[in-house]
């Protein structure tokens, strides 16, 4: 009995480390699978956004407008007393913008005798002036409609990007909570010390990574093109605009139409943009907003919509200036 020693089998001692290794490998694979799903979801969102952003510009006019050279503004205002005695300086500027100075001069030169021919001539000239002012009002309405459409187009895509980002944040937050809860349950059920620590650390890292990703915006960018850019001539003006009608371009650039009479409406709009909307913009950002387009993020699209809406309000306000001139022509 004393010469025989009982040897313990090593199987029981090695079983526990092997089980720990298998469990650790299993949980690491699960964590890797979850990360793979997360990455695939991000790639799918990218493709969806690119497809959505590649929509043509439906706001551009279907036809190219050709403006009558007869109604182009004069380079200098006339000093005709027949007009200056009856029209304010503001109305005279507006009449020149509409190109009706020659018609107003012809109306003023008509004899005061109440003959049938004089009355007929007066009515004909008044109709010509009113038709031109109606055409001017149509130009204002057309441009305002295009500005409104462009603003809605940019804001719509920007809102879509915001909604996609909110959905991504919601999914990441939910996944982070689920993994955190599953990690807590798993560590409480696993008896082995090494395994529960591995599961706890791995689950905590995955949960923290998902939570951290949810805290930041995705900054997704989509292609957004605008060959006909209504903001371009406001930012970098030219003597003649290919985008705006001669009437509207004259009003926007003539200092006499602004409240201060010191700077033009166009210059005031640009100054407000530079100070409040796009301060300290780089050359690349200026090319994006005022060029032919590029890859826009959600904030960029909302910024563009903001500038378009401000410009639309200034264009619509020109209708207020027409009222006084219409009253003079009617009487």
Overall description:
This protein is mostly helical and 331 residues long. The chain has helices spanning 11-53, 81-84, 89-98, 101-109, 116-189, 193-214, 232-235, 246-253, 265-277, 283-290, 298-316, 318-330; strands at residues 222-225, 293-296. It has one domain. The chain has a two-stranded antiparallel ribbon. Helix 3 (89-98) crosses helix 12. The model is unreliable at 3-18 and 48-54 (pLDDT under 50).
List keywords for this structure.
331 residues; two-stranded antiparallel sheet; 12 helices; 69% helix
Oligomer: single chain
Q: What does the largest sheet look like?
A: 2 strands, antiparallel
Mean pLDDT: 80
Unreliable stretches, pLDDT < 50, 5 or more residues?
A: 3-18, 48-54
How many DSSP-defined strands? 2
- Figure out the total of helices: 12
Spatial strand sequence of the major β-sheet: 1-2
| Percentage of residues assigned to helices | 55-70%
- Molecular shape: elongated
For the CA atoms, what is the radius of gyration?
36 Å
Query: Between the first and last Cα atoms, what is the distance in angstroms?
Result: 138 Å
Whole-number count of domains: 1
